[in-house]
Amino acid sequence: MAKRALITGANRGIGLEIARQLGQKGWHILMGARNAERGAAAAATLKKQGITVEPVKLDVSDPESARDGFQEVLRLTDHLDVLINNAAVLYQEDQSLLSQQPGFIQDVIQTNALGGLLVVQVFRPLLLPGSQVLFMSSGGGSMSDPVGGWSPAYCVSKTLMNSICRHLAFEMRSMGVSVHAVCPGWVRTEMGGAGAPQSVEQGADTMVWLADQGPQGKTGLLWRDRKVVPW
Prior knowledge:
This protein is an alpha/beta fold. It has a single domain (4-229), classed as Rossmann fold. It is built from 6 helices and 8 strands; from the N terminus they run βαβαβαβαβαβαββ. It has helices at residues 13-24, 36-47, 63-74, 102-123, 152-172, 200-213, and strands spanning 4-7, 28-33, 53-57, 80-85, 127-136, 178-182, 221-224, 227-229. It has an 8-stranded mixed sheet with strand order 3-2-1-4-5-6-7-8, sandwiched between helices. Helix 6 links the parallel strand 6 (178-182) and strand 7. It is globular, with a radius of gyration of 16 Å.
């Protein structure tokens, strides 16, 4: 039986590339997207490449959408080998914590951090011993690297997401489910911009490797370039 992965925010950018690479390895891909039409179009593109993929309407910031998405996935599979929390937002107006309205910051955190937690809570029944939960992190969320200078609300949301990842790793260890975060680097996508040094293929590499053949028996770690790095 083909392994099954649910990837949120998979209709474009790194999420789409992760779906493509895992699909080429024979995985059955469940492609989460908050916009049903864009999700269906992206899935159709992968199907033309011989990839087994199903689009799933899933807005990670909306509990009702998450529950509906769970029911849709449940009709397609009885388990998930990997749940990849990739969906995120980054806005051009994200320039300063001091001057930004609280509602704006809350919106970013709701999608980028709490959204991933919501998805894990809702899809938990499909996670069996040996399953993995993977979060797409960012160098901007690091508490060990220098911070500041770009998209502070986004960076704060990723710091919170990192903390959520570590706590989930502790709680889900007894379930036999490993939880990790991956920093993809600065990648040339719609979000990262044309000036980013890494290709989308490079940005997806560590996440795909970790999902498909990552080391067993480890959990609660942050990965970059297939290596563990400080949080």
